[in-house]
């Protein structure tokens, strides 16, 4: 699939109306209809999908009579985009986006598995866990080098040294690395070293950070849902990154805060079909942070795959009893390997490939 965007950045306007071309439309039809719009003084943004082409109109759409455009035999329909998010909107981009993270595909029929410790504690620890996770079938390695903690007295991570350890683990195993960026001060270092840059739940609405990430890099961004964020707020945060120039956004549901206190958070599995209805972006599920208990990870991971997620993010630790961060929600390597075996037939049943 070949997809290209003309981004509406630098205050050039937003897409308010789209033209959906018929599946039989040819390149010359798209060019002709685009010119009709441009002759009205608007700009166009074109998405070529596998089945249909969509033309976004940028500018004063009051100048456009939809009926005049729909008369063209190559046009299926003209639609107003009422949602505040445009680039992330499924209407504008009917095909699922497939994001490439150093050769690992996330989205479509692919089921990515991100595994590793909550925080980087030592080089030996991370490499040992990385090797075990890869042997079990994981295809990306997670690890926190900079840790946002509720308490200022809790372990805050190893910082840049932790990133270097993750790089060493990538060299030892070949697994692309995922780590959380907390401050734009470290953005250049993350662009250099990290393959999938995570924006955590607490920074989901740090709009300055989102804009800087969008402008500075095309590297894939993993955007976690905020603790109490609505679907629209979450998608709008993705829109900030995309509108700033980076289309490679992956959403991550990690549980939301509810009245229930027995579990750490409440995993919102219905987010999967809702996000797929509203957007074309991949969505992965983090059952570790959602429940906060290791024995909840297995059933919630399975349920997420059945619901249609594009990936899982699972905390794995070789000695969770002595972990410096989130030990109670981490799986030991043997438990993780068992989960991976149990996921294979489930993934196959829903046409996903690990």
The gyration radius over C-alpha positions equals 21 Å
Strand percentage: 15-25%
Helical segment tally?
11
What is the string of helix and strand elements? EHEEHEEEEHEHEHEHEHEHEHHEH
Helix content: 25-40%
Largest β sheet strand count, sense and barrel closure: 8 strands, parallel, barrel
Rounded to the nearest angstrom, the distance between the terminal CA atoms is 21 Å
Q: Give me the side-by-side strand order of the main sheet.
A: 7-8-9-10-11-12-13-14
Shape, principal axes of CA atoms: elongated
Number of DSSP-assigned strands: 14
Low-confidence regions: 1-12
**Structural class of the secondary structure composition?**
alpha/beta
Mean pLDDT: 91
Q: Describe it for me?
A:
The protein is of the alpha/beta class and about 350 residues long. The chain is about 35% helix and about 20% strand. The chain has 11 helices and 14 strands. The strands form 3 sheets. Strands 7-8-9-10-11-12-13-14 form an 8-stranded parallel β-barrel, surrounded by 6 helices. A 4-stranded antiparallel beta sheet has the order 2-3-1-4. Strands 5-6 form a two-stranded antiparallel sheet. Helix 6 links the parallel strand 10 and strand 11 (about 220-225). Helix 3 packs parallel to helix 11 (about 335-350). Mean pLDDT is about 90; it is low at about 1-10.
Can you give me a brief rundown of this structure?
With 354 residues, this protein is an alpha/beta fold. It is built from 11 helices and 14 strands. The radius of gyration is 21 Å and the shape is elongated.
């Amino acid at each position: 699939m070949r997809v290209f965007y003309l981004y509406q950045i630098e205050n050039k306007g937003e897409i308010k109306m789209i033209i959906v071309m018929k599946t039989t439309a040819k390149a010359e039809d798209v060019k002709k209809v685009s010119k009709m719009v441009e002759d009205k003084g608007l700009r166009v943004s074109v998405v070529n999908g596998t089945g249909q082409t969509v033309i976004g109109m940028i500018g004063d759409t009051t100048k456009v009579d939809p009926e005049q455009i729909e008369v063209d035999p190559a046009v299926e329909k003209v639609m107003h985009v009422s949602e505040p998010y445009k680039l992330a909107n499924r209407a504008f981009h009917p095909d699922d986006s497939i994001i490439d993270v150093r050769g690992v595909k996330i989205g479509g029929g692919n089921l990515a598995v991100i595994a590793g410790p909550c925080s980087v504690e030592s080089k030996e620890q991370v490499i040992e866990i990385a090797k075990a996770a890869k042997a079990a079938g994981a295809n990306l390695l997670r690890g926190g080098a900079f840790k946002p903690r509720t308490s200022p007295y809790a372990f805050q991570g190893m910082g840049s040294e932790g990133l270097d350890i993750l790089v060493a683990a990538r060299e030892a195993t070949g697994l692309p690395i995922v780590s959380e960026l907390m401050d734009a001060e470290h953005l250049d270092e993350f662009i250099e070293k990290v393959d999938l840059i995570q924006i955590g739940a607490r920074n989901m609405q740090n709009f300055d950070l989102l804009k800087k990430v969008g402008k500075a890099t095309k590297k894939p961004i993993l955007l976690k849902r905020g603790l109490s964020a609505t679907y629209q707020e979450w998608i709008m945060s993705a829109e900030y990154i995309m509108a700033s120039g980076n289309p490679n956004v992956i959403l991550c549901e990690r549980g939301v805060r509810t009245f229930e206190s027995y579990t750490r958070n409440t995993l919102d599995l219905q987010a999967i079909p809702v996000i797929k209805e509203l957007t074309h972006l991949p969505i992965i599920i983090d059952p570790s942070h959602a429940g906060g208990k290791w024995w909840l990870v297995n059933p919630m991971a399975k349920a997420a795959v059945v619901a249609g997620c594009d990936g899982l993010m699972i905390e794995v630790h070789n000695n969770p009893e002595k972990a410096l961060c989130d030990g109670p929600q981490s799986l030991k390597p043997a438990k993780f390997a068992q989960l991976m075996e149990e996921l294979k037939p489930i993934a196959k049943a829903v046409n996903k490939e690990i």
